[in-house]
Write a structure and sequence with these properties.
GO terms for molecular function: ATP binding; protein histidine kinase activity. This is histidine kinase. It catalyses: ATP + protein L-histidine = ADP + protein N-phospho-L-histidine. By secondary structure, the protein is α+β, with helices and mostly antiparallel strands. Among the domains are: 2-115, GAF domain (Beta-Lactamase); 153-252, 2-Layer Sandwich (Beta-Lactamase); 352-364 and 374-466, Histidine kinase-like ATPase, C-terminal domain (Heat Shock Protein 90, 2-Layer Sandwich). The protein is built from twelve helices and 18 strands. It has helices spanning 2-7, 9-15, 61-69, 117-134, 171-179, 191-199, 207-213, 254-294, 298-321, 331-345, 365-386, 428-440; strands at residues 17-24, 30-37, 54-56, 73-74, 86-95, 98-108, 157-160, 166-169, 220-225, 228-239, 242-252, 328-330, 355-357, 362-364, 394-400, 404-411, 444-449, 455-462. The strands form four sheets. The protein has a six-stranded antiparallel β-sheet, with helices on both faces. Strands 8-7-11-10-9 form a five-stranded antiparallel β-sheet, sandwiched between helices. Strand 1 and strand 2 form a beta hairpin. The longest helix is centred in the middle third of the chain and has 41 residues, at 254-294. The chain binds adenosine-5'-triphosphate and magnesium ion. Adenosine-5'-triphosphate (ATP) is lined by residues 306, 377, 381-382, 384-386, 411, 413, 415-417, 420, 425, 427-430, 455.
């Protein structure tokens, strides 16, 4: 039933009619309408929602006949009871050996004109499909329910005969083929070969295309030529046990695909750039590490090793960004890695196990990169100065509000040296922190002795409204 309802727009459109799916009530007292579809090709009969409506047994004779006699049932004269002439028809729904319900097909005849070739082809195809529903051949068994929008009747329709030759081409279908480069007539042409010649001039025959374009199996494919992309969907018509031909729905998806491709390449490019930046930073870090190993002067070596860590923490941000399609990262991930890195460089006798309390959540990369850097410096200071020679607690406490992020890095170590003043401090670490927090992030920064001993660094960073 679900696969029927996911695909019966086709039947409604070809019929220019409303469809209502009725299933019998368990207790046999009547019918309930479980689904409804209006045509996009013509006027509807039902302006109201029918789903959920109950019809008592005997109230709708056509339903009973289709159900009891297992056949399509058509009313002779139009029904005028709703004020417009409506032709009613009922189609039993069959799946394997079971009959599941009845489709009521109602055509609003008020706008019926002398039928054109297009209308005649549609109606003939509709009646073939209806026959297939009654015989349990449509929707196709095993076919995935159609989830993405596949072509509709109004997008373009071709009807093929048994040999795969086009017997009718709707104006839209013809236009699509013109855009693919067809100069000759489509009617009378063998669709498979014609399409292959247009789209795969110098390439080996595409098997899937040949199957779709010959209408032999219910499948979809996409072809491209001269910058035009066209989606094809084949619906084999199998009536009375024999293949009588096929419908091929055609949709020009050039614009759609172009936009998708653009989006995809933009995302992929950004991710690739982050990946390369990360690689380059890791190379820089490796070079510095090599140089540090060669240095005899301990101070020089320490300085280089610290540079390695600074570069490393930026690389972490780029690595994380290279995995996400957006320019946003889950900063908790990054913070935890930076924190773990600090734990590793702490003096072994200090036994510092840094911890994060609270969550940063998702941050934009403009904030994440400097913040990762800042965090590295502050944690580094805590293990290098505060907790250099004794065990202690090191915590990163985060609280995130709608418009600001508050972060406290606190240690219970030896505390700041006497006469310490942030503004007059000229060492590099805190200068970096100040520049990034105040300059780059427009935030606030304080470093104070912690109550109960140690040091507490407080950051207040405004978050831009999303
Ligand atoms: N958590 C802390 N506990 C104790 N003292 C600290 C702490 N953080 C900073 N300090 C003091 O502030 C000074 C300046 O820190 P800053 O990070 O700017 O320089 P540094 O760590 O000495 O060198 P680097 O430029 O390599 O970071 C440190 O030398 C230290 O005396
Ligand atoms: Mg420092």
């Amino acid at each position: 039933m679900h696969s029927l309802v996911s695909d019966w727009q086709l039947l409604a459109d070809l019929s220019f009619a409303d469809l209502i799916l009725w299933i019998p009530l368990k207790d046999g007292s009547g019918w309930i309408a479980v689904a409804q579809m209006r045509p996009t090709t013509g006027p509807t009969v039902y302006h109201d929602d029918i789903v959920g409506m109950i019809a008592a047994r005997g109230e709708r004779v056509l339903l009973e006949i289709a159900w009891d006699e297992r056949r399509i049932c058509r009313e002779g004269d139009p029904d005028w009871s709703s004020g417009v002439p409506v032709r009613e028809e009922t189609i039993p729904v069959r799946r394997a050996d079971h009959f599941l319900g009845v489709i009521q097909r109602s055509t609003n005849l008020s706008s019926a004109r002398t039928p054109s070739r297009l209308e005649l082809t549609y109606l003939q195809s509709a009646s073939d499909l209806a026959q297939m529903v009654a015989e349990g051949r449509f929707p196709f068994s095993g076919a995935e329910p159609i989830l993405v929008r596949s072509p509709r009747v109004g997008d373009g329709l071709l009807r093929l005969d048994r040999a795969g030759r086009v017997t009718y081409a709707s104006p839209n279908a013809l236009s699509a083929y013109r855009r693919l480069g067809l100069n000759a007539d489509l009617v009378g042409a063998e669709l498979g070969r014609t399409t292959a010649t247009l789209c795969y001039r110098d390439e080996p025959i595409n098997e899937n295309l040949m199957i779709v374009a010959s209408g032999r199996e219910p499948r979809e494919t996409e072809v491209e030529s001269g910058g035009t992309v066209v989606q094809l969907r084949a619906i084999p018509l199998v009536v009375g046990g024999g293949r009588i031909g096929a419908l091929v729905l055609i949709r020009d998806v050039t614009e759609l695909r172009r936009r998708e491709r653009e989006l995809m390449t933009k995302d992929a490019t950004i991710r690739e750039i982050h990946h390369r930046v990360k690689n380059n930073l890791q190379t820089v870090a490796a070079l510095l590490r090599l140089q540090a190993r060669r240095l005899q002067v301990p101070e020089g070596r320490e300085a280089l090793e610290e540079a390695v860590r600074r570069v490393g923490s930026i690389a972490i941000v780029h690595e994380t960004l290279s995995h996400t399609p957006e320019e946003q990262v889950d900063f908790d991930d990054i913070a935890d890695r930076v924190i773990a890195m600090t734990g590793e460089v702490a003096a072994p006798e200090a036994q510092v196990v840094p911890r994060r309390i609270g969550a940063f959540g998702v941050l934009r990369s403009e904030i994440a990169t400097p913040l990762a850097m800042v965090l590295t410096e502050l944690l580094q200071n805590a293990v290098q100065h505060g907790l250099a020679h004794r065990p202690g607690k090191l915590q990163v406490i985060v609280s995130r509000g709608a418009e600001r992020l508050d972060v406290i890095v606190s240690d219970d170590g030896t505390g700041l040296p006497e006469g310490f003043d942030l503004d007059s401090s000229t060492s590099l670490g805190l200068q970096i922190v100040r520049t990034l927090v105040v300059g780059e992030l427009s935030g606030r920064l304080t470093i104070e002795p912690r109550q109960g001993g140690g040091t507490e660094v407080t950051l207040g960073i405004p978050l831009p409204a999303v």
